[in-house]
């Protein structure tokens, strides 16, 4: 949520003694790891409604999302 993101940002800023434009480059050097724990079918009612309103086949959308996530 936005509140959680702001809280994390404030904690990160509070822990920093100085400001540097090069800090971004340092963060890029750190390896970022994302692990996918579970892949399931599209189930969010709002997303399914959005797809339906635009006449997008949900099975096709589900396949496309799965391919995007796993590649």
Q: What does this protein look like?
A:
By secondary structure, the chain is mainly α. The chain has one domain. The chain contains four helices and no strands. The protein has helices spanning 2-14, 23-29, 45-53, 58-70.
Write the SSE topology.
Elements: H1 2-14, H2 23-29, H3 45-53, H4 58-70
Largest sheet data:
none
Task: State which percent range the strand residues make up.
Answer: under 5%
How much helical structure, as a percent, in the residues?
Answer: 55-70%
3D shape: elongated
pLDDT < 50 runs, ≥5 residues: none
List keywords for this structure.
71 residues; elongated; 59% helix; mainly alpha
Question: What's the quick description here?
Answer:
The protein has 71 residues and is mainly alpha-helical.
